[in-house]
Amino acid sequence: MSERALRIALPILVLVLVLLAWDLVVRAFAIPPYVLPGPGAVFGALIGDRALLWNSLLVTLSITFEGFLLAAVGGVLLAVAFNQWRLVEYSFYPYAVILQVTPVVAIAPLLLIYLPQPLAVLVCAWIVAFFPVLANTTLGLNSVDHNLLALFDLYKASRWQVLWHLKLPAALPQMLAGLRIAGGLSLIGAVVAEIAAGSAGAGSGLAYRIAESGYRLNISRMFAALLLLSLAGVAIFFVLSAVSHLALRRWHESAVRRER
Amino acid sequence: MTEQMARLPDPTSPIVSLRDVGKVFASGVRALDGLGLDVRAGEFVSLLGPSGCGKSTALRIIAGLSEASEGSVAWADGADAGPGHIGFVFQEPTLMPWADVAANVRLPLELAHADDAPARQAVARALERVGLAEFAGAYPRELSGGMKMRASIARALVTEPELLLMDEPFAALDEITRFKLNDDLLTLWQELRRTVIFVTHSVFESVYLSQRIVVMTPRPGRVFAEIVIPAGYPRDESFRTSAEYAGFCREVAETLARALRAAS
After folding, report:
1. d(CA B255, CA B245)
2. Which domain holds residue A4?
């Protein structure tokens, strides 16, 4: 079997084995579905509750997407501002770090007090997602080839020419790496905020469904919602990886296919 | 062509003069001390010295990329250190990896907000001169080391500068490629008749290329001796294998050895 085929076949084999073992254990020990449903029951919930789950998925995805977009724009703009004006960096960078290292689970309940719920969820998604964009873009902007900087200097390039023609393109690989991390994190931020908000009542995202199903001992639906969340995360990762690959395929070593 | 000839300064007077130029870095290291150098219009001059003798620093000071701590850099009337008057070729090709060859070569014109049509023409001409016309759409990573350096030279030539500064441009290339680029550089120089200041640590390269070699002492760098290589141009393979060439190389190598001893 070729390397490529193995890379696809082996994970599928593991999945099938785990599902079989799971099913076997549930049947053999006659575990009631309100403790641990079998894979069949989870699949049933996925089909049976599809309208409900689909709507919740859309809610979660749209918040994730908005949070990601704000994080991308905010992170890049902030990185550019830090790069252009030293004093801005000195003033705000410590707070960006503080915002990042404070667990978002702990911030969410506070935000829910002061902000309407959808906005609070969005802010949570943004807080977790913007930092990798900021940190990676900053790194990229600061690691420009110093000879190229000298060249721009020689031709009397303006600040903005240096930024537009040199620093931003040079930072693109790191920026895209930051965005790839941010995609997953904005989903996490949205879920954390929804869970925190869930106990407060209103909400209809997937995370809220998980919390709600938990109270109702509808474990199958919990698993189904969890499965959808995982798939959403995987999809986000693949989409962002593809975007990154398309943007870099002509010139960056990370995206260039090499013959051996 | 006559118009361009008229633009060149009087060949008997120097295009750039360095007087008592010193450079002390913030770390306290003194790179240059009392460096004096006159370069005449149309001349091919090499700065020869061991690594760390400040020859690159001298080149950067001429280019305006670095400020002299002491002394002065004076330009001939009509010439100045402004953009377009100086082309600089770095030790590495220093190309933008995200831009194709044509866009890299076009950069100096782009930064000067040049009009599109003349810029296109200038890029095509510069690529033609270095033999890269067919590779305009290639990305730097698709090129060999020698071709990257050619692209870098094309970028330095695209503004048709009066003065071309080259900082050990071929040091990282293999010998075959280096010989080829040396030949092509000489051909270009004879065609264009611009002034070239070429920094190198290779005795053989400096003798092959230059009309005049300025031998520098190790840190702090200063001029130890100037040697004129009276051999005519064009120089080619027969010059490289001649006894005359070997004789010049011996003379320059001995001078360089004396410069090293004088410093220690």
Report:
1. 15
2. 1-30
Cα A204 from Cα A61, distance rounded (Å): 12
Q: Which residue of B has its CA nearest to A155?
A: B83
Strands B70-75 and B163-167: unpaired
The per-residue pLDDT for range A8-24, each reduced to its tens digit, is 999 999 999 999 999 99
Could you tell me if A80 and A26 lie in one domain? no
Give CA–CA dist A258/A243, Å, rounded: 20
Whether chain B has a CB inside 8 Å of the CB on A256: the answer is yes
Cα(A151)–Cα(B166) distance, rounded to whole angstroms? 13
Looking at 3.40.50.10490, 1.10.3210.10, 2.60.120.260, 3.40.50.300, the CATH number of the domain B2-85+161-263 comes to 3.40.50.300
**CA A86 to CA B160: how far, in whole Å?**
37
Distances (CA, A) of B249 to A103, A200, B227, B241, B255: 69, 87, 11, 11, 10
pTM attached to this predicted model: 0.84
Give the ipTM of the model, two decimals please. Answer: 0.88
Q: B252 with B207: CB under 8 angstroms?
A: yes
Q: Give the Å distances, CA to CA, from B57 to A255, B65, B195, B202.
A: 37, 9, 19, 17
Min mean pLDDT across B70-79, B170-179, B191-200 is at B70-79
Determine whether the interchain pair A170/B98 forms a contact, defined as Cβ–Cβ distance below 8 Å.
Answer: yes
Q: Give CATH 3.40.50.300 domain extents, chain B.
A: 2-85+161-263
Do the beta carbons of residue B96 and residue B107 sit within 8 Å?
yes
A246 interfacial to chain B (CB closer than 8 Å) = no
Domain count, chain A: 2
| Chain A residues closer than 8 Å to B108 by CB | 155
